[in-house]
TrEMBL record:
Gene3D superfamilies: Hotdog Thioesterase (3.10.129.10). It catalyses: hexadecanoyl-CoA + H2O = hexadecanoate + CoA + H(+); (9Z)-octadecenoyl-CoA + H2O = (9Z)-octadecenoate + CoA + H(+); dodecanoyl-CoA + H2O = dodecanoate + CoA + H(+); decanoyl-CoA + H2O = decanoate + CoA + H(+). This is Acyl-coenzyme A thioesterase THEM4. It is a peripheral membrane protein. Keywords: Apoptosis, Cell membrane, Cell projection, Cytoplasm, Fatty acid metabolism, Hydrolase, Lipid metabolism, Membrane, Transit peptide. Residues 1-28 are annotated as: Disordered. It is found in: Cell projection, Ruffle membrane; Cytoplasm; Membrane. Signal peptide: none annotated. One of its GO terms (biological process) is fatty acid metabolic process. It comes from Streptosporangium subroseum.
Length: 230
């Protein structure tokens, strides 16, 4: 199922092929084109290279000018609508432009999550040095962003997709970058339009680094639109 949110413009959608059912992860339902995904990955690589560059000043100036040309070229072909929102067969909402999971969004990790048989959201991830906050550690806001998303996915697959009302975090241990980590989240319960979930970012052996609980509220307008879309 592909949903254009009510406020989305209905113009041409050149960068997207809509939903692709039967897959999970960053290239699942709601994906962009393969070429756009590659462009986004190239830009992630570029961001990493910028943060870590030791290039001399004149080289930086020259590279900046070359990049400005490419930026103008892309900006001239700017899309006129959002990437469509779609739900994969497991009920996970996805779209290629999402800030956390979007395959077409260089800002996104991108986080690739799966729904386990017991309906836990599970994502293997690895942060990069560009996510650094305190020396050698991932910025706490970046961890929060990931947890917000996987908790939101957990309530979505339980049928309570919503906007984050509250997100409570406990930073237990520093989060390293450049190492394999696992983010998981589970739906807890619902009361009317409110749903709760909990989750964590942990080492592969299960040692928790950041723990989260969240309340997600399905806006009344979504209820109506989702009912109308099915
Ligand atoms: C056709 C559409 C289909 C969509 C399908 C789903 C797609 C996506 C889903 C999933 C994706 C994957 C996961 C993503 C995860 C990331 C999510 C985010 O980052 S969300 C961005 C950050 N959060 C905001 O920006 C919220 C801003 N706030 C609001 O929009 C509203 O305040 C909202 C929706 C939270 C509530 O507004 P009201 O008008 O619907 O509901 P009211 O009547 O105000 O409240 C209902 C009940 O909830 C309580 N409540 C409201 N806000 C609360 C809050 N912040 N904390 C605690 N309780 C709150 C109220 O006290 C009330 O409780 P009482 O029924 O009286 O017991």
């Amino acid at each position: 199922m592909t949903i254009e949110l009510a406020s989305a413009e209905n113009a041409e959608n050149p960068g997207s092929t809509g939903s692709a059912e039967g897959t999970t992860g960053a290239s699942a339902a709601g994906e962009g084109s393969a070429a756009l995904d590659l462009l986004a990955q190239q830009v992630r690589d570029l961001v990493d290279a910028v943060v870590l560059t030791g290039a001399p000043q004149d080289e930086i100036v020259e590279i900046t000018a070359e990049l400005a040309v490419l930026t103008d070229r892309l900006r001239a072909l700017r899309r006129t609508s959002r990437h469509p929102l779609a739900f994969d067969p497991e009920g996970v909402p996805r779209h290629a432009g999402n800030a956390v999971t979007g395959s077409a969004n260089p800002y996104a990790l991108p986080l690739v999550s799966q729904v386990t048989p017991d309906r836990t959201i599970r994502a293997e991830l690895s942060f990069r040095q560009v996510h650094e906050g305190p020396p050698t550690s991932v910025h706490g806001g970046v961890s929060a962003m990931i947890l917000d998303h996987v908790l939101g996915q957990a309530v979505a697959v339980a049928g309570g997709a919503g906007m984050t009302g509250t997100l409570t975090l406990r930073y237990v241990r520093r989060v390293p970058y450049g190492e394999p980590l696992v983010a998981t989240a589970e739906y807890v319960r619902s009361e009317g339009r409110k749903s709760w979930a909990e989750g964590r970012i942990a080492l592969p052996d299960g040692t928790p680094l950041v723990e989260a609980t969240g309340l997600f509220i399905t806006p009344r307008v979504w209820k109506e639109e989702m009912t109308g879309a099915q």
